[in-house]
Amino acid sequence: MNTMLIIFLLFFLGSHDSFSFYIDEASPVGPEQPETVQNFVSVFGTVAKKLMRKWLATQTMNFTSQLGAGIRYFDLRISTKPRDPDNELYFAHGLFSAKVKEGLEEINAFLTEHPKEVVFLDFNHFYGMQKCHHEKLVQMLKDTYGNKMCPAIFAHEVTLQYLWEKEHQVLVFYHSPVAVEVAFLWPGQMMPAPWANTTDTEKLIQFLQASITERRKKGSFFISQVVLTPKASTVVKGVASGLRETITERALPAMMEWVRAQKAGESGVNIITADFVELGDFISTVIKLNYALDEGEDDTT
User: Fold this and answer.
1) Residue 13: C-alpha distances to residues 40, 93, 95, 160, 282 (Å)
2) Which of 113, 122, 103, 111 is nearest to 163 (CA)?
3) Which pLDDT belongs to residue 215?
4) 138 in Cβ contact with 178 (< 8 Å)
5) Which pLDDT score is estimated for 232?
6) Distance (Å, whole) CA 92 – CA 231
7) How far is CA 278 from CA 33, 118, 144, in A?
8) What pLDDT shows up at residue 9?
């Protein structure tokens, strides 16, 4: 890989709802959930949460396993937990997952063992967060990563060589006004992630292709979410089977066909996220796309 390539022109692998390999069925329902879901759980209790987990868990591998497989972008949603005596911060997607501190430390352990690896941490949803919680999260990032974090600069100035020379391994994107107050927080608008919000594979692919065309105007990092989103009727029909079996596995061949046709570069794909990243040849396919980029450079020299 050419180390002088600007990193927003490269392919990176990402996972959607990266933390959802662990969802605590004993936890309360997340504060972002609508009243209908809250009422459903209040009536059916643990049974309801077990069914919810089948649709909320979008990954099976923990952070260490994802990193080992090649995932470098992490989609993170943070929440406070109602009536939590420890006032901790948690990853959350409908139900609560692990403590944020534990997840950050797990990622840091991998980075310490692999000093040339770079990850993107995208904090894109916050639930029940007050100013004091944001301050706590910012301090947690400082304590965990320190100089590993790359200060926010122009995206076109960041190459692998630059990161290695500065010993930076972490780019933190923060979708909150708090980002403008902290040097190592990259504003959320520098990591756009348009969402198709559809169960239809054909509509998803059309949306992904149109989004890449729009990317040319942004000059930033960019996420292509190769993800189908279930509707309420979809969940009802496949309530016992869950997201993976009902949607993801069935749509995988068509989605992978689109991925294989992509190219990197300013008007191409940058970060691709998916559910259940271990399925099929998603990981190996995206990695190969970067080698294709190197070959293209060789052809022009």
Assistant:
1) 36, 21, 25, 16, 9
2) 111
3) 76
4) yes
5) 79
6) 20
7) 28, 20, 28
8) 78
b/e per residue 109-148 (b: at least 16 CB within 10 A): ebbeeeeeebbbbbbbbbbbbeeebbebbbebbeebbeeb
Q: What is the pTM of this model?
A: 0.93
The 3-state DSSP composition of the chain as helix, strand, coil percent (nearest 5) reads 45, 20, 35
Catalytic residues: 16, 93
| Confidence at residue 31, expressed as pLDDT on a 0 to 100 scale | 77
Query: What is the pLDDT at residue 300?
Result: 36
pLDDT band at 13 (very low <50, low <70, confident <90, very high): very high
Number of H helices, E strands in the chain: 10, 9
Residue found under tokens 């005596």: 85
Q: How confident is the model at residue 89 (pLDDT cuts 50, 70, 90)?
A: very high
User: What's the token pair of residue 74?
Assistant: 């992490």
Q: Sort 65 into a burial class: Cβ within 10 Å, 0-12 / 13-18 / 19+.
A: middle
Per DSSP, the residues of 227-285 read -----HHHHHHTTTT-HIIIIIHHHHHHHHHHHHT---STTS--EEEESSTTSTTHHHH
Q: Is it the case that residue 114 has pLDDT exceeding 80?
A: yes
Would you state the pLDDT for residue 165? 95
Q: How far apart are the first and last CA of the chain?
A: 15
Enter the tokens of residue 249: 């596995």
Task: Say what the pLDDT of residue 85 is.
Answer: 84
CB atoms within 10 A of CB 151: 13
Angle at which helices 131-145 and 100-113 cross, to 10°: 20
